[in-house]
Specification:
The protein has 482 residues and is an alpha+beta fold. Helices cover 39% and strands 21% of the residues. A hairpin with a 7-residue loop joins strand 13 and strand 14. It starts with a helix and ends with a helix.
Length: 482
Amino acid sequence: MRKENRKYMIKNKLLVAMAFLGGIVGLSLSINYNAFAKPNRPVLPLKELQQFTEVYVRIKKDYVEEVDDKKLITDAISGMLAGLDPHSAYLNEEAFTELRVGTSGEFGGLGIEVGMENGFIKVIAPIDDTPAQKAGIKAGDLIIRLNDKSVKGKTLDDAVKVMRGKPGEPIDLLIVRDGKDKPIKITIIRAIIKVKSVKYKMLEPGFAYLRISSFQSKTPDSVRDAIKALQKENKNKLKGMILDLRNNPGGVLSGAVGVSDAFLREGKIVYTEGRIADALMRYDATGEDLLEDAPLVVLVNQGSASASEIVAGALQDHKRALILGKKTFGKGSVQTVLPLGEKTAVKLTTARYFTPLGRSIQAKGIVPDIIIEDLEIKKSDKNTEDEIVIPLSEADLSGHLSNPSGEEEKPQDSAKNKSKNSATDKEKIASNGSIKAVENKKLAEEDYPLFEALNVLKSMNLIQSMNKNKKKVSLKKKSTQK
């Protein structure tokens, strides 16, 4: 009796599978027939679909446990998209909802942008002021375990689900980092992630700093408001600005275009190319430079991706800004979200984008004009950090030649003079402008690339001022000659 029931069940399943195959064959024949009238329609590969159906039947018949038909088809779709590239994916109801929540600027989790690499989770960039950044997660880290469970074999969506969890709950990440001999274990407390994409401040009088941590739909408006506020603080004129795009994983394309447009007067910003007509797009500047030609330095690193690279590439091609830092991530593709009804969707790579000069950034990245490594300037030892070392001059050297006019500085002949009342010395040094030197030293210790970017920006401002003065002098000479 059991054998008969089993035969009956298998027979039914095979009939279902054959009906499924029959539907596919019928669809294939229909599409093949229509292809004569509309050659742009895709032709389904009948032989490969038969193989797919055979695997489907084998699973239904022989797998150790019964598998739901919906799960099999959904997993097949997910695998089909995952095999295309690291950014194409099937979005089930939960993933589709999370995607829409993520673009609103607030969500729960760790605060990192991630992708897949060789079956492991790769950190593209930690988001500013989030648990991940505060815990020390860096761009380029490979996450190999989540709470002691290997991520190998998990989809990106599965890994993201584990990382998001409830706010306040801890999660252990085991990561592999370049330059480290063994994996590092980092514990992070989940939190509600509120992404504030734009921050700004003055570094020195006239020299501004603007940080973009991600590109959202409202980012261009926030950038314009920030520049206006900085200009107002400096009597409506800036000597130069640093645009910080480090560890910015990207975001919406319109955000990158709007930010680039704020600094360009004319020409292309970015264009895209793909196989379908909708993938062919071009974006141009609208004719306004909010900085009024003031020098601009853009800071990037390996965590600068996608929309960040669009901005850096556009400003570099137009020679509007000097790019400083490390080579960027190299994501030069465009993903389109195609809804499948109201609850699910397909995220599909539909185009590649190109810089104004036709450069593809895909898997290459933006190479900075000036490469700066992430160096760390260590603070002085506590026993010596308060000491003031006054440099020697010619007058301090034994047996130096005397000044023929009889005027020369008295030598600082003893440590007594150098250390006598250090408070007075500090006041003297402060009065000679060394407060700025102390501030510069602090900036170098906290953020060396930013310190170097500020020095470059000052040099650019100086060169620009010298060129303006030369033009004024030549105009005066011409008017005198007339």
